[in-house]
Specification:
The protein is an alpha/beta fold. It has one domain: Purple Acid Phosphatase, chain A, domain 2, CATH 3.60.21.10. The protein is built from 6 helices and 12 strands. Strands 1-12-2-3-4-5 form a 6-stranded mixed sheet, with helices on one face. It has a 6-stranded mixed sheet with strand order 6-7-8-9-11-10, covered by helices on one side. Helix 3 packs across helix 4.
């Protein structure tokens, strides 16, 4: 009886202990073909840091250093940045060290609303980070980068996107919650070439690829990885940090950030 218990204990310890120099357990790399680009374009996507919710400032520093070493064209932040209001300024100052030729972009997650939406937006912008609030930015020689609020807090008005998006251009949408794509008509979703999301933490605690508890209306569908919705790729990060107030550890749901190389389909 002792051996299974010991193995289970060692497995749990390995899931919780030790933080690699990357600041996360792994870096996932994906190649995605899109229309409307003239060259390959590299994006770094990081989400769900939850600073100080068992995710230390030192670990966040290592995460920022790791992303900078990769040299992406643009860095995208998917929301749920902090444990509470006290971490908004420290998060923004550290995230302000992120460096990319085309800039650093962020959207708000549900926890950013709880912790202080206005303060989060103002503080991030003071550190040079573009906060996207149902808006987009056109990068010089890459995709348009669009961002929305967490849809459960302020449901995005798609009419605004219909007015400003150009179907011939490549557009990447950052939506903290992947469930948002299920709320769109196929015509609206087709305005985007790629959707990047977090929120689900890869289940955070999974058993044989199944998460007993997952914050999604659609079960395991948007737990982790790449999912096609009406032909549009939706990429879901496991997130960097930990959600919750009790089970602040991971089992078989390694933390990550994602490096995406957009390849011209033409």
């Amino acid at each position: 009886m002792r051996s299974p218990i010991l193995l289970a204990g060692l497995f749990l310890f390995a899931s919780c202990a030790g933080v690699p120099y990357l600041g996360v357990d792994r870096v996932r790399k994906l190649d995605i073909e899109v229309s409307g680009l003239k060259r390959e374009y590299r994006l770094a996507f990081v989400s769900d840091v939850h600073l100080e919710n068992n995710f230390s400032a030192d670990r966040f520093r290592r995460l920022v250093d790791s992303i900078n070493r990769e040299g992406p064209d643009a860095v995208l932040i998917g929301g749920d940045n902090t444990l509470g209001p006290d971490q908004i300024l420290p998060f923004a100052r550290e995230a302000g060290r992120l460096s990319a030729p085309a800039g650093v972009y962020a959207v708000l997650g549900n926890h950013d609303f709880y912790n202080g939406r206005a303060q989060t937006v103002e503080t991030l912008r003071k550190e040079g980070i573009h906060v996207l609030q149902e808006t987009l930015v056109r990068t010089p020689d890459g995709p348009d980068i669009a961002g929305i609020y967490d849809y459960r807090d302020v449901f995005p008005v798609m009419g605004r996107f219909r007015d400003i998006l150009e179907p011939r251009r490549c557009t990447v949408l950052i939506s903290h919650n992947p469930d948002f794509v299920e709320k769109l008509s196929p015509e609206d979703l087709a305005l985007f070439d790629l959707v990047l999301s977090g929120h689900t933490h890869g289940g955070q605690i999974t058993l044989f690829g199944y998460a007993p508890v997952i914050p999604s209306e659609y079960g395991q569908r948007y737990r982790s990885g790449k999912v096609l919705k009406d032909g549009v790729p939706v990429v879901i990060s496991n997130g960097a940090g930990f959600g919750g107030s009790v089970l602040r550890f991971r089992v078989c749901a390694p933390s990550d950030y994602i490096l995406i190389t957009l390849k011209p389909k033409d």
